[in-house]
Amino acid sequence: MSKSSLFLALLTSLSIALPVHANDRYQSRPPVMVSPDLQASWVLQLGGVPAQTRSSAMPQRQRQVVPAGRQRVVVQPQQVLRQQPVQQQRRLVQQRRVLFPQQQPAPQQVAMRPDKPVRTQIEPKFLPQMVQYQTKHKLGTIVIDTRERFLYLVMADGMAKRYGVGVGKPGFEWAGTHKVTSKREWPDWRPPQEMIAREAAKGHFLPAHMPGGPENPLGARALYLGSTLYRIHGTNAPWSIGNGVSSGCIRMRNEDVTDLYERVKVGTKVIVI
Known about the structure:
The chain is 23% helix and 18% strand. By secondary structure, it is of the alpha/beta class.
């Protein structure tokens, strides 16, 4: 073997035996370039990518556009109520009242109107009072003026106690002089047959007998006059005092006839004019 061949073989064996390093691949190391935008993806941080490419590589978050047919419209509850038909609004109001009964206003009470007016007061002049009364009748005599609708109990010194009374209606007036033959408290009532027949013809049916009490037409007290069917008695209709409404009897308020009852005795003279 020649010397030149031996030298080439030796170089070849040395190149194989010596280790090869990674840095020996480059003649000179490339510069390290870092992107100023550290928030960009790692590819862009390597540098060398144009700005336009960088912006296109990082698409900005765009607002999503929803087609008109799929848009969701938020409407306030009061606006929904205005847009709904009147019947549907009423239905919603009724449902709310069922669900929230405590919010409903308390129902207003309505006063019942009676079929017939009820009178409970009389004119002040028909209330009991002491008056001057000049008369020739003796002390304790009862004088009833059916025209003026007053009953006078004669007292001393030209005075009398005057009470308002109800008297017989037209066709049932009478006049005369009698005595108190009996007195009764809370008397029962037995209307005469002619009165029962007369009222039945009008459509009013009277009982044959009614026990004494607040509903009895004779009221709290009764003074019977002579042998007649007439009496001075109380009433369950005090509004009738001062009017001609009876079948001939003399009506008084219950409190007034009770006061008179205590002042007179059986045998008292009664004059009806």
